[in-house]
Specification:
By secondary structure, the protein is an alpha/beta fold. It is built from 15 helices and seven strands. It has three domains: about 150 residues, P-loop containing nucleotide triphosphate hydrolases (Rossmann fold); about 60 residues, Orthogonal Bundle (Histone, subunit A); about 70 residues, Helix Hairpins. It is about 55% helix and about 10% strand.
Amino acid sequence: MDAEAEGRTGSLADLAARARDGHLVAIVGPTATGKTALAVRLAERTDGEVVSADSVQIYRRFDIGSGKPTAEELARAPHHLVGVLRPDDAVDAARFATLADAAIDDIVGRGKVPILCGGTFLWVKALLYGLAAAPPADAALRARHQAIVAASGRGELHRMLAEVDPRSAARLHPNDVLRVSRALEVFELTGEPLSALQESHAFRGSRHRPYLAAIRVSPAELTLRIARRVDAWLAAGWIEEVRALVRDGFGDSRAMGSVGYREVRAHLTEPRSNDELAASIVRSTRVFARRQRTWLNHAEVSWVEDAGG
């Protein structure tokens, strides 16, 4: 099903009614569509607070290139799980769900309305529907994977995963060593691909009363927004931010492998013109946004025409 063609259409007023009725409204969708702006407006209308579901915004010092809410947005609506972890802290979907549950309980306990906002869809699914059963981490296997990366590079670990779980390998970037290692670890411990375990789980049971919403933005308009945002972030000091993180020992952190950050990180060792750097980030971000849109094709989403409405 094409969710954008067949999904529900809604408005800010519709989302506010759902939130007041006890639904956990989740503002999801591709990067640069205006999720934060919509979540802030919804929070203002419902006396709500925003819980971020973004795997880069959760880290301190990854500020410019993660699109963290501005000081003005934070003043209008309290945000949770933004800048709460050290750049080298480990976090996965299960830990996020635990942190998000605690934040939601706190918000509800104070008589406020929780609003979920973010584009890290595995985290959103983990919070709303739980995770597929998988074995606990194995320190020996993870150490062996790290040794492979140190000796042969990240690409070798990704190649090993592709041999046993091509579907997981297809959705994971080789730089995402933590997730690649975890997927390979699951296969080595169980003999089953992680993708098969996730498919059998299918995220069928709801842990909350979810109501997903996304903002309808045409691909052409989204490309323009991405390009404008990349230019603004580079002008705001994105390269300097990454240089400081690398200097302080966070060049190989998980968040540094995210879209945009990995291109800026590479620019520090193999410099190119600002125009070339911006173009490479825009290309990678468009690919990422297409993957996010594909996920929406398999979710029941209410499409909002205008984040300002």
